[in-house]
Automatic annotation (TrEMBL):
<dbReference type="GO" id="GO:0032259">
    <property type="term" value="P:methylation"/>
</dbReference>
<dbReference type="InterPro" id="IPR029063">
    <property type="entry name" value="SAM-dependent_MTases_sf"/>
</dbReference>
<dbReference type="InterPro" id="IPR052356">
    <property type="entry name" value="Thiol_S-MT"/>
</dbReference>
<feature type="domain" description="Methyltransferase type 11">
    <location>
        <begin position="48"/>
        <end position="142"/>
    </location>
</feature>
<keyword id="KW-0489">Methyltransferase</keyword>
<protein>
    <submittedName>
        <fullName>Methyltransferase type 11</fullName>
    </submittedName>
</protein>
<dbReference type="Pfam" id="PF08241">
    <property type="entry name" value="Methyltransf_11"/>
</dbReference>
<keyword id="KW-0808">Transferase</keyword>
<dbReference type="InterPro" id="IPR013216">
    <property type="entry name" value="Methyltransf_11"/>
</dbReference>
<dbReference type="GO" id="GO:0008757">
    <property type="term" value="F:S-adenosylmethionine-dependent methyltransferase activity"/>
</dbReference>
C-alpha cells in the first residue's frame, strides 16, 4: 500500500467511513439494495468480495457461502465487522489492497465487487489479481456505475469526475467494460440496470 494514489484512497475512505451509509441511504434503499440482492443470489461456495466497505452486501449472500471480504480502509472494515456481528454472520474480513491480493492462485469460486472498480487506482491490475485467485470455471461478478455511451451523460460524468474523485475518492467516468477486457477477462454478460446505461452488471471468467 505504498503507492501514493492507493494511500490517498485509503485516507479518503477512512475519513468518509462514518458518513458513508447515511450519504447513500436514499439511493441504497431504492436502487442499490435490490440490485445487490439479485446479483449476490448468483454466488456459491468460497467467495471473495473486494472492496467490502461497510458491509452493505452482507445481508444478501445466500446461506452456506464461505465469504472473505477485503477492504483498503480499516475504518470501513470496522463498520463491516459491526454489521456482520449485528446480523450474526460468520465472515472473514481483512484489510487488504485489491491490487495486491495475498491469496494463492485458484482460491475462490466467485469474486464479487459492487461499486468498487470506480475507486481502485489501478482497476486493471486489481482485475488481473481477481482473475488470478479465481478457480477454474469460477466467475467474477461486478455491479458498477460506468462511463455512459450517451454523449451528454458522458460529458456530465467527465465534468463532475474531478469533484467526486477529490471529495469521495471515486470516479464516475471509468470505462469498466474496457478495463475488464484489458485485464484479459472474457465478458459473458454486460447487463444495463438503470440511468440509461450508467449502472451495469458484468459477469466474467478467465480464459
Amino acid at each position: 500500500m505504498s503507492d501514493r494514489a492507493t494511500e490517498r484512497t485509503r485516507r479518503r475512505y477512512d475519513r468518509f467511513a462514518r458518513f458513508y451509509d447515511r450519504v447513500e441511504a436514499w439511493v441504497e434503499e431504492r436502487l442499490f439494495a435490490p440490485w445487490r440482492r439479485e446479483t449476490l443470489s448468483q454466488v456459491s461456495g468460497k467467495v471473495l468480495e473486494i472492496g467490502v466497505g461497510t458491509g452493505k452486501n452482507l445481508p444478501y449472500y445466500p446461506e452456506g457461502v464461505e465469504l472473505v471480504g477485503i477492504d483498503l480502509s480499516p475504518k470501513m472494515l470496522e463498520r463491516a465487522k459491526a454489521r456482520a456481528e449485528r446480523l450474526g454472520l460468520k465472515v472473514t474480513l481483512l484489510e487488504m489492497d485489491a491490487q495486491e491480493l495475498f491469496f494463492p492462485p485458484a482460491t475462490f469460486d466467485f469474486v464479487v465487487g459492487t461499486f468498487v472498480l470506480c475507486s481502485i487506482p489501478d482497476p486493471v491490475r486489481a482485475l488481473r489479481e481477481a482473475g488470478r485467485v479465481l478457480k477454474p470455471g469460477g466467475r467474477l461478478i461486478f455491479l458498477e456505475h460506468v462511463l455512459s455511451r450517451h454523449p451528454l451523460i458522458a460529458l456530465w460524468e467527465h465534468l463532475h469526475n474531478p469533484l467526486t474523485r477529490s471529495l469521495f475518492g471515486f470516479n464516475v467516468n471509468r470505462d469498466t467494460r474496457g478495463n475488464l477486457l484489458k485485464a484479459g477477462l472474457v465478458l459473458e454478460r454486460d447487463e444495463i440496470l438503470g440511468l440509461v446505461d450508467v449502472f451495469r452488471r458484468f459477469v466474467c471468467r478467465v480464459p
